[in-house]
What we know:
Mean pLDDT of chain B: 93
Strand content of chain B: over 45%
Radius of gyration of chain B: 13 Å
Strand content of chain A: over 45%
Largest interface: A-B, 24 and 23 residues
Shape of chain A: globular
Radius of gyration of chain A: 13 Å
Order of helices and strands of chain A: EEEEEEEEEEEE
Number of strands of chain A: 12
Helix content of chain A: under 10%
Low-confidence stretches of chain A: none
Shape of chain B: globular
Number of strands of chain B: 11
Number of helices of chain A: 0
Structural class of chain A: mainly beta
Distance between the termini of chain B: 36 Å
Oligomer: heterodimer
Mean pLDDT of chain A: 91
Largest sheet of chain B: 7 strands, mixed
Largest sheet of chain A: 6 strands, mixed
Amino acid sequence: xxxxxxxxxxxxxxxxxxxELRCNYSSSVSVYLFWYVQYPNQGLQLLLKYLSGSxxxxxxxxxxxxxxxxxxxxxxxxxxxxxxxTAEYFCAVVYGQNFVFGPGTRLSVLP
Amino acid sequence: NAGVxxxxxxxxxxxGQSMTLQCAQDMNHNSMYWYRQDxxxxxxxxxxxxxxxxxxxxxxxxxxxxxxxNKREFSLRLESAAPxxxxxxxxxxxxxSWNEQFFGPGTRLTVL
Lengths: 111, 112
């Protein structure tokens, strides 16, 4: 079965520090890749997506992600985080008709 | 536009009771989805509907049924609730399998 791995379940980081949230997926064929963010007691919102083209994708709120086909990875980065970035982040991959979500990484930004 | 709406927001059931979770979207999307979210497991697809009149099982369909009433509405029914169905349920819609999905605010269900 296709799978999505997010290696870190929790990432604490100080405000204004850089952060990287890791995502790896199991398929080596062409895939579509997404990062979503979930703020407390809310639904998921799209941060960014990779469908084709440039492997560096820029999203909302200063986030970006890089698609690496050889390493089957799609890591999310932000050069300087804010308190308001505290949330849970989900990587998702489209296999066929369906989205497969990773287990999520809880980012906690500390003052 | 309201986007994706879900009712109710919260529900407590006793084991064996039944209920229907309602979902509606006003974005004219063909595809609609039901997920459950459990701690440490991300979102798991229960059922989806690629277009009006069609439904298909996802990863965890057991204990659930769905109805795609029309293009706007996609309901999820629990016929006989079990404690293992305690979860947060999200409805989503989208215009195609490779496109962004838009999520509702969720329904927090507790089965005692």
